[in-house]
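Write out the 3D structure for:
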Amino acid sequence: MKDKLKPLIKEAKKTAQRAIHQHLAVQLKEITSKFGEGSKKLDKKIEKEAKKLARKFAKDIKINKEGLLKDNTVVKAPEAAAPKADAPAKPAPKKVAVKPAAEPQ
């Protein structure tokens, strides 16, 4: 039972960490845009610091173990979204150049 529970808890904490990181980054970017024009350097620093802070917060999160065992489908990643290795790759449709019709003179 512990073998099944440990990966579920780990995945739930990672999911929580990603959510915290995204929300923090969005909120900080909104706040900084109110005070002035943003820059790539500032955005990069915001992303980095939000990620650090999200890690710290995610460590302290307590996960409901009973809920994970009953409904572990919430934590699983969707398998249908990932392309299968067995399926052949579809070629990209070729672009056809449209030539303007010749005008009679």
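The first helix runs from residue 2 to 35.
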